[in-house]
Amino acid sequence: MVGFHDTLQVGVITKRLLKPLLTAMKSKRLQWPRLVWAPVHQFGMMRTSNTAIDVNMAREFNRRVEEFLTPWGVPVFDTFPLTDNVTSFDGQHYGFGVNRMKVRILLHYLQELKSLGQW
């Protein structure tokens, strides 16, 4: 997952991944594939505390990446509030029910973007 595996370093994500990708897509005037960003989600209650990443860092990471993506017109599918106070089997990954709900919401979100002419 982009973000957690890079210890929420915004500069790494924007400079090494997002900016080159978005620049290439823009320079080729690609209409497809499209990009939608799914920020990191809330940590579950079972997450171990022996990590340097905390919930405030995750929120700040999400805010800064969204701030970077806004001028590029990349929609952000934020599941952080959806995963707040939800039990996770390891503190970072969610089970079938949560993931299924996130996918259904994502599909409806994409349909809404399409109906607004933004997708």
UniProtKB/TrEMBL annotation:
Name under which the protein is recorded: Uncharacterized protein
